[in-house]
């Protein structure tokens, strides 16, 4: 039963209005605004500075990550290399090639990493949480996802699922490598292939692999590898592979990647389909119904619970951020955002690529789909072949020196600006994490409060302007841009988002090979309660968490994974320090142009900062 909108909820979607918009969009040239929304800029900006530039021959950056026990940023390029970048540099840093994956694959297998651009080549690297724990099974282990030339004898390899091969010449591969802590390198002879995935079409292939960095030894999630795979299909995915549980296409996979006797890996007993005896169901599947789940993150809420957020690239209508829950179906190819995806016929041969979307039916609660916690539409003309929108999701900011950034989930759009589209490529979006977690994204016929489509809610989406310290000189004015397209002076942004060892945020672009540091996402040393000042209240946080171990702990100032006496020393040394975050867009100062005491700012906006609605 649909209830009246509470003040703290997003406005209910008017399905009659949506239908009217769809009818008005019947003419191919007419743009449609499916959500009837306006995404507004916040009253403050995000401050950036160029941090490192990769070599021009090896600068197609697709992933940035960290590993426990190391303060470096590990940067993955489609050309097949992993670079390390030191964090904490006051000026610009230098990138050092750490592991040539492409050369190692060639040496170990005689086959090449396939391609080096446009979703090909190396895609990601993930370090086992026991990477530095000598004697543990995961000691020195790292995992890479990439596309590799298809072997002549496929019977000698483990193919995950029953997806078909479309003569693409390559497979998606998950491989393990072992780092030698004594020699300080990765040997190509340590290569171990875990599985391969057949691709019907050379699009939306294997994507990101990552471990839950918050999981501790003894936790069910410790040492389990998450991996996303796109639908590997034409734009409308006529095979409906994401809805079939017998393949890896359009899925999130979860496994224990360590060798298990004669098996290349094992399946966690807590996987949602682990107990299935159906040969058409992969026990490795964690969630399904995705189109192109390009990027995902692990983010912890105020209670300590960890959530998985994935950015799923839509077809021609909607871009989604989904809260991933085990066993849930996120709808593609039947749903796109909170709409019915009007699928083209399977034998269309590519015709009718865009046939539009429709409102959800009245019986939607009986169909079992899950919906986004945040979404934005393309505002694309009906019949447009490509509207040029592709989401790249980021992370929840949790320890920034700029208090207004904390608890915001950042995401952007990285595809190409095209005629008639909303030109959202390169814009930097955000949503409030609490709003995302409280969004109504599942319907139930047995719950009157959420048994109709109009009772679905999503978090508000806002935008941030970018203030670039282009010359790394705090004495010159920052250059302010509405998004990365303008900042890069390019028709395409190709932006990705990474998180550093202190929780700080980095942005990269394949257009120029530059990694930018968001300076006001860096924590203020000793400011353990993240209020913009180092004072007695921060001592209380340190005292109450002394001895805690884990990832991105508020009072772990020296990043050793434990709150200890060394962190107290950092607090004492910085006692009385104010934040150096930017005051706002009107003066447009660079972050280090002046040291600002933020007590007044904190007093004026803690309950009403942009992007968070008052609670009921």
Automatic annotation (TrEMBL):
SUPFAM superfamilies: Soluble quinoprotein glucose dehydrogenase, Type I dockerin domain. Its EC number is 1.1.5.2. Residues 70-335 form the Glucose/Sorbosone dehydrogenase domain. It is an enzyme of class 1 (oxidoreductase). The keyword Magnesium does not apply. One of its GO terms (molecular function) is quinoprotein glucose dehydrogenase activity. It comes from the Bacteria. This is Quinoprotein glucose dehydrogenase B.
